[in-house]
Specification:
Elements (H helix, E strand, L loop, with lengths): L3 H35 L1 H25 L7 H23 L1 H30 L3 H20 L8 H29 L1
Pfam families: DUF308 (PF03729)
Protein name: DUF308 domain-containing protein
InterPro entries: DUF308_memb
């Protein structure tokens, strides 16, 4: 078990990490709705970068919180997100229905892994309800994406962007919740 001051310092780092995740996701959403929607090449790059960023973020988070062995759900999420980034590159050749299906499968897996991470962290840091809720919502949205990928309407980056916007809001709420919890603890 971590000492109270060590837990507080780690919770503070986790709060900063959540703010960073919220900011990057919000910037991605803004880019997706503007330049990504207007320029297919930029849109394709953004679609590849979103899961790649998730892989990098999970790696950084796992390393900062005890390493890969101590953080199995984040380590697996790193692998899943990295493979997804490559799968999106391949799916782009087949079209946006394939991309949406890949994003859907990723959202299900990444959501369940995020839910597991939030549940594990709850015991140490508390204030993880937003991450647990986000993981569950991600898994449900992913299932919807997979179903939607078989439909007649042609999806676009703007189909996926609201999913990322919800993710940004959940990370922001989690950061604020940790901020409040840390202030009460101080």
């Amino acid at each position: 078990m971590a000492s109270p001051s060590s837990t507080f310092e780690t919770a503070d780092a986790l709060k900063r990490y959540y703010f960073l995740r919220a900011g990057v996701a919000a910037a991605w959403v803004a880019a997706a709705f503007t330049v990504g929607a207007a320029n297919p090449v930029v849109g394709a790059i953004l679609l590849v970068l979103y899961p790649a960023w998730d892989a990098v973020a999970n790696a950084r988070d796992a390393q900062a919180n005890g390493g890969f062995k101590a953080n199995a759900s984040q380590t697996l999420n790193l692998v899943v997100s990295g493979v997804t980034s490559l799968a999106v590159m391949l799916a782009l050749r087949a079209g946006m229905h394939a991309v949406l299906a890949v994003f859907g499968a990723w959202a299900v897996l990444a959501g369940l892994l995020q839910l597991a991470t939030g549940a594990r962290r709850w015991r140490t840091y508390g204030a993880q309800w937003a991450m647990i809720l986000s993981g569950a919502q991600s898994a449900l949205a992913g299932a919807f994406f997979v179903k939607q990928a078989t439909g007649p309407a042609t999806p676009s980056i703007t189909t996926i962007a609201p999913y990322a916007a919800f993710g940004a809001s959940y990370f922001l709420v989690a950061a604020i919740a940790l901020t409040i919890k840390n202030r009460r603890r101080a």
